Amino acid sequence: MARNCAPVKMGVVAAGVGACCLLSPGAFVAPTTPSLRASHAAAQLAGVQSEAPSSEGQGSSWLASGAAGLLLSGVAARALSGGRRAESSVALRATGIGINGFGRIGRQVARIAMKDPEVELKLVNASYEADYLAYMMKYDSIHGRYDGTVEVDGDSLVIDGHKVALSHTRDPAEIPFAKYGADYVCESTGVFLTTEKIQAHLKAGAKKVVFSAPAKDDSHTIVMGVNQETYKPEMQAVSCASCTTNGLAPMVKAINDAFGIKRGLMTTIHAMTASQPTVDGASKKDWRGGRAASGNIIPSSTGAAKACALVIPAIKGKLTGMAFRVPTIDVSVVDLTCELEKPTTYEEICAEIKRRANGDMKCYLGYCDESLVSTDFETCSISSTFDAKAGIMLDSTFVKLVAWYDNEWGYSCRVVDLIKYMAKEDAKAK
What does the alpha-carbon distance between residue 63 and residue 49 come to, in Å, rounded to a whole number? Predict the structure, then answer.
């Protein structure tokens, strides 16, 4: 990931690492050349100015229409279907990936992968026919139309001129990973979430499997920007944790590193998901979970806060949390209320998070001092965007911190990032 780029007012997201969206001058990472040139082209396509600020001391009023610049994280990515794919011809061999399951995460992973020259989408396994899979790839009620070409060629998709094989089996042992060179697999069915259960994937030719959900065994968990250095090439399966853990852990890491967290409670105000009914239905295990997602605020459980200890061992036993499911279709927000070990001020906390967002945690931790709302963060590639205006402090050690995350797009960016990281580490080990 680039570390030496100058701040700009908008950014391009290509698998979430080449560039990230900016909410205030200097707050997030900016794209490097040639991505910077591409970002200006994408800005013109979207009708938004993309001039660089002259100094970091300027205010954050540059967003011409609310937070339109943030939305370019997705617009720009989709606009680069030709240019970024062309760059891959001079790059090292792209990592071949497969996707098992074409739900909300599988589809976004496919879109992101198609715009990233470091990976090549080889195969999608889903139970639907090719024409319907093409439809699902083209259209999305949240992230918009796929700004590229999607065609059907027999039982394959041709996306931006690139042929993607399809298979339609519920048995992972029958998925032709080896035949099509899908070495790294995004397992997004939600079914095969243990090292034991992905042995069938490996027998079918996959080299490594990434769970786009918390593991149901002791398979290693990685949150990019937090503990990716703990990956070892001998690992067969790795979990990318949950979207909420990815939305919480970067902020927790920054705060714990600087001030220490003595204890804390997290609440996620979470957009509704496909697992919830739109109208009242039956749910024996979770009675409230069976109520209409489209018309209720629904208290729910979450293991996201406790799962932070899997990637930040120093906070084990110090965090727990719960969720409220709300009737919005994308973007969630975490509220972390915690007691700090080191007395500080809210201004010092903001400064530290901004420093980390500009430093070693670029593209994973973001900083926002605009008065934004949830839809402003749709299709944002940042894992966790700290909202400086939303937090409050009671005294020098007791604080409430708020961070936004696109629970679909941002998380899917991290899945692709994790695959790329694993592939590079595996190559070093050979």
Answer: 9
**How far apart are the C-alpha atoms of 181 and 396, rounded to whole Å?**
55
Q: How high is the mean pLDDT of the chain?
A: 85
Map tokens 């007012």 to a residue. Answer: 9
> What CATH number corresponds to the domain at position 166?
3.40.50.720
The domain of 250 spans 243-281+288-408
CA–centroid distance for 97 within its chain: 17
In a domain, 81, yes or no: no
Q: Which DSSP category does 175 fall into? A: S
Q: Are residues 271 and 330 in the same domain?
A: yes
Report the run of H or E that residue 301 belongs to, with start and end.
strand 298-301
SS3 content of the chain, % helix, strand, coil (to 5): 30, 20, 45
Note whether 51 and 24 are within 8 A (CB): no
DSSP state of 241: -
104 in the same domain as 51: no
Count each helix (H run) and each strand (E run) in the chain, helices first: 11, 17
Cα gap 274→288, rounded to integer Å: 16
Q: Name the β-bridge partners of 367.
A: 386
Query: What is the β-pairing status of strands 392-395 and 398-405?
Result: antiparallel
On whether both 189 and 324 belong to a single domain, the answer is: no
Q: Say whether pLDDT at 212 is over 60.
A: yes
pLDDT for 54 equals: 35
Element (H, E) at 403: strand 398-405
Regarding whether 362 and 249 lie in a shared domain, the answer is yes
pLDDT at 92: 59
Q: Considering its fold, how many domains does the chain have in total?
A: 3
Same domain, 170 and 296: no
- As given in the structure block, the two tokens for residue 49 are 């100015």
**Are residue 292 and residue 336 in the same domain, yes or no?**
yes
Residue 109 in contact with residue 188, Cβ under 8 Å? yes
SS3 of residue 108 by DSSP: helix
Is residue 181 a contact partner of residue 80, using CB atoms and an 8 Å limit? Answer: no
Question: Per the domain annotation, does 425 fall within a domain?
Answer: no
Give the confidence band of 80 by pLDDT, cuts at 50, 70, 90: very low
Q: Position 356: which residue type?
A: R
Whole-model pTM? 0.82
Q: Does one domain contain both 260 and 380?
A: yes
- Please, are residues 227 and 246 in contact by the beta-carbon 8 Å criterion? no
Query: In this structure, what are the phi and psi dihedrals at residue 166, rounded to the nearest 5 degrees?
Result: -125, 150
DSSP state of 342: S
Annotated catalytic sites, by residue? 243
Question: Domain with 364 in it: what CATH number?
Answer: 3.30.360.10
Q: Report d(CA 109, CA 271) in Å as an integer.
A: 19
